[in-house]
Amino acid sequence: MQHSVQGFDFTTLGALLFVASLVAIATHRLKLPYSVGLVTAGIALALLPLGIALPLTPELIFFVFLPPLVFEAAIQIPWKPLRSEMPLLLALVTVGVVLAALVVAAGMHWIVGWSWLGAGFFGVLIAATDPVSVIAAFKAMRVQTRLHLLVEAESLLNDGVAAVGFAILAMIAAGGAAGPGNIAIHLVTNVVGAIAAGAAVAVPLIVIAGRTTDRLVEVTLTMLIAYGSFLLAEHFHCSGVLATLTAGLIVGNYGFLGSISDSGRQGVLNHWEYVAFLINSLIFILIGGREVSMPIAAVIEVAAIATILSLAGRAVAVYPVMMLFRHTKLAVPWKYKHVLFWGGLRGALALALALALPANVFERDTIITVAFAVVAFSIFVQGLTMPWLIDRLKLRRDQEAEPLHAAVPPEQ
C-alpha cells in the first residue's frame, strides 16, 4: 500500500530529502547559493529516468509550504528596529509594488500584446519577491544588520501586498464590482482581517504557552499558530501571508519576552530553522523539476521581455521610492539600494500565484511558462551574482556585534 501526502509518496519524499542533504553539503563546499544547487538537482531528477514524480501545485505552496516560511522569517525580525524602518518599508511595499506592477503590466500589454487583465495579473504576481538565497548569503557573509533587516522585512511585507493585489484582480476576473470604492473596501477589509486573524490565533496560544515550560509543547503551539493564522485568514478570504506575518511578529517579539520559556525559545528557533531548511529544499527541487516541463523555448522572446520588465519594475520600486527619504533619518545608502534591487529575486509565491490564475484569463498558460522563466533567471543569474555584489560593495560587517539600526548619514 502506498502512503502519500499532497502528491508525495513517502519514498519520493525521502529521496528528495536525501538529495537536498547532498546538495547542501556540495554547495557549502563550493560556496554556491543553496537554492541554485537545489533547482539544478530538481532539473536533473526530472531529466533522469528515475520515475520520481515532482508535483508542484498552488495548494501545496500556499497551504503547506508558505505558512511556515513566512512564520520562520517573521519570528526573527525584532519589532523595535522594524518599527523605526516602517515608514520606509510601507512606502516600498505599497507605492513600490504598485509601480513595479504597473511597469510590468504596461510593458506586457503594449509590447507583447497581452490583455490588460492578463498583463495585470502577471505584473502583480511577478512583483512578489522571494530572496531566500539572498538571505542565506547574508547569514553566511555576515552583511550589515540594517541591510539584512530591510531586505527580509521588505520581502515579507511585499509578498503580503502582492497577494492582496492578486486577490483583488481575481475578484475583478470573476465578475465582481470593480469600482474604486469596492476595491478600497476589499483592500481594507482584507488587510485588517488578516492582521486580526493573525492576532486572534497568536495571542491566546501564546498565553497558553505561558502555562508550561515544556519546550515540545511550546514548539507545537507555534506550529498551530503558523498554520492556524494562515488558514483562518484564508477561510474569511483575507491574506494568509499577512496573517502569518502578524502572528510571527507577535510570537517573536512578545512570546519570547515571557510566555515562552528561555529554554523553549532556543528550541522554537532551532525547530523553525530546520522547518525552513526542509521546506526550502523541497520547494527549489520542485521548481527545478517543473522547469523541465515548461515550454520556455516556445516563448523565449516573451520571457526575455518579461525578465527585462521585471528588472525595470523592481528598479522603479526601489530607487525613486527611497529617494523620497534621502533627507530623513531613514536615508538609505546607494549600496543598500543596489542590493535591494538586485536581491529582489522571484520564487515560490510568484509561481503559486501564476499556477492559481483563473481559467478565464486568456494568456494563462503563457503567463505560467513566462513566470517560471523569470524565476529561473532570478535564481541562477541574480542568486549566483549576489555574493559577488556584496563583496564588491563592501557590505560585510567588520565587527562581531553591530547596532541593529545603525545610523546612516543622509544622502547628499
From TrEMBL:
Keyword Transmembrane helix appears in the UniProt entry: yes
Protein name: CPA1 family monovalent cation:H+ antiporter
Keywords noted in UniProt: Antiport, Cell membrane, Ion transport, Membrane, Sodium, Sodium transport, Transmembrane, Transmembrane helix, Transport
MF annotations from Gene Ontology: potassium:proton antiporter activity; sodium:proton antiporter activity
InterPro entries given in the database record: Cation/H_exchanger_CPA1 (IPR018422), Cation/H_exchanger_TM (IPR006153)
Compartments, as annotated in UniProt: Cell membrane
GO cellular component terms, A-Z: plasma membrane
Transmembrane domains' residue ranges: 6-25, 32-54, 60-77, 89-111, 117-138, 159-177, 183-209, 216-233, 239-260, 272-290, 296-319, 339-361, 367-390
One Pfam family matching this protein: Na_H_Exchanger
